[in-house]
Every structure is written in structure tokens, then in C-alpha cells.
Amino acid sequence: MLSIKNLKAGIEDKEILKGFNLEVKAGEVHAIMGPNGSGKSTLASVLAGREDYAVTDGSVQFLKKDLLEMSPEDRAREGLFLAFQYPVEIPGVSNINFLKTALAEIRQYKGLPPMEAKDFLKRVKEKQALVELQVSLANRSVNEGFSGGEKKRNEIFQMAMLEPVLAILDETDSGLDIDALRIVANGVNKLRAPERAFIVITHYQRLLEYIVPDFVHVMYNGRIVKSGTKELALELEEKGYDWIKKELGETIEA
Amino acid sequence: MTNIAEKISPGDKLIAELELNQDSLTGSDVIRSTRRNALKSFSKQGLPARKSEEYKYSPVNRLFQKELSFVTASPVSDEKENSFALAGLDASVIRILNGVVHIPVSGFDSATCAAWSLKSLPKEELSFFENHFAHYALPDTDPFIALNTAAFQDVLIIKIADGAALAKPILIQNITDSTHASFTQPRIFIHVGKNASVEIIEQFASTKKEYATVCNAVSEIVVESGAKALFYKLQNDCAGLQLISTTQVYQHHDSHFDTHTVTFSGSWTRNNLNIVPDGEHCETHLNGLFILNEEQHTDNHTLVDHRKPNCESNQLYRGILKNKSTGVFNGKIYVRPDAQKTNAYQSSKNMLLSDDASMYTKPQLEIYADDVKCSHGSSTGQIDEEALFYLRARGISADSARILLMQAFAKDVVNTIRIEPLRKEIELLIEKRLAN
Ligand SMILES: Nc1ncnc2c1ncn2[C@@H]1O[C@H](COP(=O)(O)OP(=O)(O)OP(=O)(O)O)[C@@H](O)[C@H]1O
Ligand SMILES: [Mg+2]
């Protein structure tokens, strides 16, 4: 469903993604790990359509369409979802109004009739329970005054509400306590489906014990430098990234 | 071929016309003498010059480029009148047309509230009126107050009885309807009796946008001790209107004055809001919201003059500026030596949606007492790009996302509107204004 080929992107003169390749098929879960600053969030932003980054080369196909040609909202309407590493606070916009507007516009794009108010509220209640998000969504603004953990849960809650085809989770596990980690992972697992795929960006193997990935990739310096299965994550946890960098140095020298 | 008339300044022209008209204008002897003094005061001041500190960001010469003349009322068709209706608002309506007061027979409960035009003012109320009229809005303090006081044709006089609690809001529709370049001088006096409580909406509207009409409105409001007045100024349906609107408020001890100035239309608007809490334990709230488009110009000048101890004032202004519009916020707070334990706050935040829009903000705090809490904050920024992206990343179009963010920005002020149908109406108007 997602095919990224030789993607190069950066900001001003700085190239951050330096020929990134990835194939994701329906039903798969891909984990992307890698040292700080390797470009993981940049990849997520470029896929979601953040205009600060300029794509200089390569292509991205999503459901057989040219993703890079689409506006951020159309990407979301086509089924792409990004759980942000740092969700923003939006004072004055209520969570409920925000979700209602998002759902309505997505449905309109797909040619579906608006959702009945009572169905909408039922879905909110259901999904809120799924991620055990206990804040009052009607009275509070988007992420405003939410704790770090609540913000992350809110991302997963929104994902559950919007039921995307491809969800990219950018460090959704960081800042979560052990129980919250399990709850969030559980939320993701409930959404796993043959027609849906996930890209999970994380620094910790622990999350991958709950959300078991089909593939683990190591990103370094704007590229995937090593791919494997879930065992790779265990190896990284144990040995860190130095051995990969070393290996890489050797291959460059060779 | 020089025409002598061309050399006469617009201000002098107005003085000449007023001198001719003085005898034909209404009023008792006391009022006539007030008028004459006001004319003298205006002759001394003249129209604000370009270098005038008070009108620096809102030069008035453009208002007087066309030859203006003082007008008398001309009829407005019913259809036009109704188009200014506020949906769902059950209010007692009074209309001022080109400065002349039209009071409907019904709708007022004389036991709690009375409304008169100057001509219909009962004899027994005359001395009451004379004791207040032009005692608060002083001609010497501003040339437009002086002009209005010299040239008004009528006065809307509203008297709320002591202890009265009005069930319905009073809606004053201040309508300018002219077929030529005219200069109108609506005048209002409101007296809120002791421990009374009232909600008043002053709605400005104009019927024709093709004429360079100037409206110079002055309202004086006295809030007696223990009384509570909510006063909403709504400037919508004012396309083409050039408006100077002065509201002068005098608060007695333990009174509460809560006001909103909402400006959506009008090609050029200057709001002077001067409040004097002159007794202990007064509470004053000044809220403002403007959404400007095209080449609109809106200037909000506020003055809170704290003279007595233990009072609180709070100013909250929000502005959204599109295209080539210009906004001004000038907020003065005086805390006089006697006014210990004053709490005075001011916040002005503005959002510029175009590179061609501009906003001038000037807080002026003059504090002569030592045991006070005063603060002000102002900011002018753009739409939050991070928030915009977040909303779009959830499938919301860029346009709706912007509207959501601007509605959120205006919400601080909208949420303080206590009359529910008015708040709903303003929310709708905001949505409409933001969408185009
Ligand atoms: N908007 C930006 N302006 C300037 N530099 C940027 C910007 N965005 C990313 N970068 C730089 O690009 C590099 C990659 O950043 P990115 O946030 O994608 O890393 P990351 O892999 O997500 O790191 P982390 O694990 O710390 O979250 C970093 O060196 C970062 O400083
Ligand atoms: Mg990151």
C-alpha cells in the first residue's frame, strides 16, 4: 500500500532524508528505530505533508496514488494517519468539535453521508474507553493542559476514531508509564487488521513486545541501513547502535 | 480663479453651519447654553490635526474630504429596518434614525424603565436631565464630543428605576440612512438607578454604503451605586459607514459595568470608550472583538480612570485583520493617588492574516498609587502554523482549519457575552466573516 523509493528531502540547504526506501503491505507492522537525529520524524512529517520540508528526489505511492502530490488533508482523507511525537495544544478548539469536523470532512471526501450525532457520540465513548482516556473531551480544548501521557493517548484515540489505512506512530511510547504503554499498545493491537498497516517509530524494544512487528528497520543518517525481524530490536537493545555504525563504516570502506 | 470657499477648512465649514443653525436646534435654556459652550469648545479645538496624539493612527481628514452637511431624518422603509433584526433576541427596541429618536409606544414598562426623546421628555424630568447631560462627556476633552454636543438634534433618554431588574434587554438601533454625504450626531443618555440591573445593546447600522456618511455618536451612561449594567455595542451592517462612537461611563460605588465592543463592518471606525469608576468596589469589564476585511480601519481607544480604592477593571480585546485592514488599540489606565488596591488588567491580542494588514497597539498605564496590581499584555501574530498542520493532518481542509483557529482565537471574548441569543448571533456572524 505504501511504496517509498529513493526519497530525498530536507530543509533549506540541509538534506535530512538521503535516499529512503520502504515497502509496506496491507496488514504489516513495520518498526523504525535509529539514533536521535537520524531523520525518523522528518520521514513521518514528509509523509504527512508538512510543507516545511522540500522533497528533492524520489517518489511515494500510497494506495497506488502519488502521495507527494496531495495536500495534508487529502492524505488524511485517503487514510494516512500520523500520531505526532509532539502533539500540539490548540486552545479554544474543543476536542469534540475538532473530531466532528475531521470525521465530517473525511466522510464527505469519500462521498459518505454525515454521521448521525448519536452514532458519533457512541463511537467517541467506545474509543475513549479503548485507550482509557479519561479527560472530558467536550469541555476541553485539543491537548490543552493534557499531561504528556494523555496527549499520547489522545493521538491513539484519534486514530481509533478515524480508522486509518496506514498509521505512523512517532514515539508514541515515550513519556508513557508502564500501564499506559500497555493500554496504548492494546489500542493499536485492537486496530490491527488485514487491510491496515502500521509504521511504529520507537527507541525502545519494550513497545515491540506489545506491538509485535513484522519488520524492524534501523534508520541512520537519512536512510534505512539495516532491516530484520523483531529479533533485530532485541539485538539493538543489547548492543546499541555502534556496531551498526561500525559495520556501515566497513561497508563504506570496502 | 481661486474660489474663496475652497480655502475654508472642513472644521470651519462645520462651525459656520452650526452658528447659522444654533437657534433652530432644540433644547431648554440650559441645554442651549450647553450647546453654545460646546460650539465654542469645538471652535477652539478644531478637527484633530494630523499630528494630534489622540488621532495619530486614525487621521480624520479622509472623513471630511467630501463636503458634509448635518442632516435631518429621512424615512427608512420597513424592509430595511427589519434587515437589522437580531434573530431570536426578544428585546425592547428603540430606533435612532440619523440622530432622531423613534420610540415605539409599546415595549416599555414605565414602572421599571422609561425612555424618551428630548422632545417628549416630561417637564418634571427636565431638571434631572439637565443635571446630568454633558456632565460626563466633556466637550473640552475631545473635539467630536464637542461637535456632537453642539449639533445633536435629539437625545434618547433612558431611565432605569432604582432596584429595577429588567426582564428583557433594550436594543437601541442606531441607524444612519442618507441619500447624500451627511454628518449625523446621535446622542444617548442612560441612567441606571441604584441597585438596578439592565442589559443594553447598541447596534449600529447604515442603509447605504455608496455615500461617504459620517456618524458621530455620543452616549453618556451613569451607573448608580450597586447597579449592574451590561452594555453591548455591535457594529455590523455598517458597510461604508465612517463612525466615531464615544461611550462615556460614570460608575458610582459598588457598581458593575460590563461592556463589549464588537466591530465587523464599517469602513472607518473609531470607538472611544471612557470609563470613570468613581466610587469604591466598582467592577468594570471592557471586552472588544473586531474582524476586519479589505481596507477597513478600526481604532479602539479605551480609558479607565480609577479614582477610588478597591476597584477592579479588566480589558480583553481580540482582533483579526485580513487583507489591507488596519487596527488600533490604545488602552489607557489611570490609577490616581487615592485609588489604592486597584486591580487593573489589560490584554490585547491580534492576528494578522495578511502581510498587508497592520495593527498598532499602545498600552498606556499611568499609576500614581503604590498598592495596586496592574498588568498589560499585547501581542500581534499570525495563525499558528503548527496547529494548522495538526488539524489538516486529521483531514480538515486548510480553510476550515483556519476558521476553527480564528473562532478559537475570538472565543475568549465571545464566551463573555451573557445574552445567549446575542452570543449565538455573533458566533454566526463570526463564522460568516471568517469564511469570506
Ligand atoms: N525544521 C527543521 N529545521 C532544521 N533542522 C531540522 C528540522 N527538522 C529536522 N531537522 C534536523 O534533521 C535531523 C533529523 O531530525 P528528526 O527530528 O527527523 O530526527 P529523529 O530521528 O526523529 O530524532 P529523535 O529520535 O530525536 O526524535 C536533525 O539533525 C534535526 O535537527
Ligand atoms: Mg523524532
Question: Care to describe what's here?
Answer:
- The complex is a heterodimer of chains A (254) and B (436).
- Chain A is an alpha/beta fold.
- Chain A has a domain at 2-87 and 164-247: P-loop containing nucleotide triphosphate hydrolases (Rossmann fold).
- In chain A, 40% of the residues lie in helices and 28% in strands.
- Chain A contains 9 helices and 12 strands.
- In chain A, the strands form 3 sheets. Chain A has a 6-stranded mixed sheet, sandwiched between helices. In chain A, strands 2-1-4-5 form a 4-stranded antiparallel sheet, with helices on one face. In chain A, strands 7-8 form a two-stranded antiparallel sheet.
- The model of chain A has no long low-confidence stretch (mean pLDDT 92).
- Chain B has 436 residues and is α/β, with parallel strands linked by helices.
- Chain B has 2 domains: 10-277, no CATH class; 384-436, no CATH class.
- Chain B has 9 helices and 21 strands.
- Chain B has helices at 4-7, 10-21, 29-45, 78-82, 126-132, 143-151, 385-392, 398-414, 420-435; strands at residues 69-70, 92-97, 100-102, 113-117, 156-160, 170-176, 182-184, 187-192, 197-206, 214-223, 228-235, 242-251, 256-263, 268-277, 283-292, 297-306, 312-321, 326-335, 343-352, 358-367, 373-381.
- In chain B, strands 1, 4, 5, 7, 8, 10, 12, 14, 16, 18 and 20 form an 11-stranded mixed sheet that branches. A 10-stranded mixed sheet of chain B has the order 3-2-6-9-11-13-15-17-19-21, covered by helices on one side.
- In chain B, a hairpin with a 2-residue loop joins strand 2 (92-97) and strand 3.
- The longest helix of chain B has 17 residues, at 29-45.
- The radius of gyration of chain B is 21 Å and the shape is globular.
- The termini of chain B are far apart.
- The mean pLDDT of chain B is 91.
- Chain A binds chain B through residues 48-51, 71-73, 75-77, 82, 84, 87-88, 90-93, 97-99, 101-103, 105-106, 109, 141-142, 158, 162, and chain B through 384, 386-387, 389-398, 400-401, 404-405, 407-409, 411-412.
- The complex binds adenosine-5'-triphosphate (ATP) and magnesium ion (MG).
